[in-house]
User: What shape does this take?
Amino acid sequence: MNDGDGNLLEKSEKEQTLEPDVPQTETGEPLTPKSFRGKVVYFIWRTIPRLFLIGLIALIVLLFGSINEKKAAMEKAKADAKPPEAPLINTVVMPLVPGTMKDRINLPGSLEPWTTLALTAEVGGVVEEILVEEGQHLNKGDLIIRIESDDYRIAVDRAKAAYTLAVAEYQRDKIVHGKGIIPKAQLDIKKTNMALTKAELDNAKLLLKRCTIKSPMSGVVNRLDAEVGLLLSVGDPIGEILEIERVKAVVGIPESDVSAVAPLSQVAITVNALDDLTLMAKKHFLASAPDSAAHLYRLELAVDNPDRTLLPGMFIRADVVKEKREGVISIPIYSVISRNDEQFVFIEEDGVAKKRLVALGIMARWMVEALEGLRAGDRLIVEGHRDVADGQKIKVVHTVEPSDQVAL
Assistant: This one.
């Protein structure tokens, strides 16, 4: 039995060492062909798996080699290839020239009449006649209103009679006093009475004169309060006259600009209602204290208005020039870039944008003074400057030629 088990064990070990696809005899021995053809077939049969494995490995090696070669070629081509150049930025430049610049402020204001005169009744009485209309221009001395004067004329006649009598009495007593008949004290009484009656006569004439109201100045009737038949008392309003042959342009000056405005002698104003008519006005008065809660100082400018085209109430703009500077470089404010606590511009040099740090001064409308960083002849980039970098090539498509007044 042991022998049997041993044979079985040896048989099993032989089966494990033999390839499963090799033909075997009944005893477990490999079946080997005897003919040449059989041996060839048997050899091929035994070799095909190995050849397949070797071919597969060779194919894999070839594929990896091809991939590495293509990868190296692509990397070399990428390294040798030049990056495409970006298109040039289109820009507009402006050559810089020295000019004149003015430090100015433009303030709102309005026109006021040179004089506003309110007429009031100086005597009581009924309005008898009105000889003017609202809006009418008057010359000095023109008659405006008549008040019934009969009572005042009677008072004049009475005062004249009293005065005539007082004069006669004084003359008579003066002769008598010369003869020593009456004392000097009695003569003095007559003299005083004569003076009193003379004063009453003058007052009566004055009241009669005030029954005819005349214009005390040249101007325009702005308002009439009286009507024919109206009974007036002393002090009642009659009307209002405006002197507009000269007018005042009134502007509020901020506290910070008072010292700069004080030495000025004239200021340019623009009247909006008259198609932005520009006139030169003379400084008439600058207040010593502010007259409003906004802390503005009243500046009055005198403007001649002989044809009376300027009317009170019209809005104006006052162009106050605080300082005038000659030979300065001025640039458009929009050409300045503020970034990272820096202010800079770009100029064009030989087709390349160059960054320049600048220090700015006074402003006038859309121009600002360049105190540092720029000089005459520099070509300032005024369009396209926000799309370029320092040292970048650019394309100049247009050049703005500055005029003599570009700096305003």
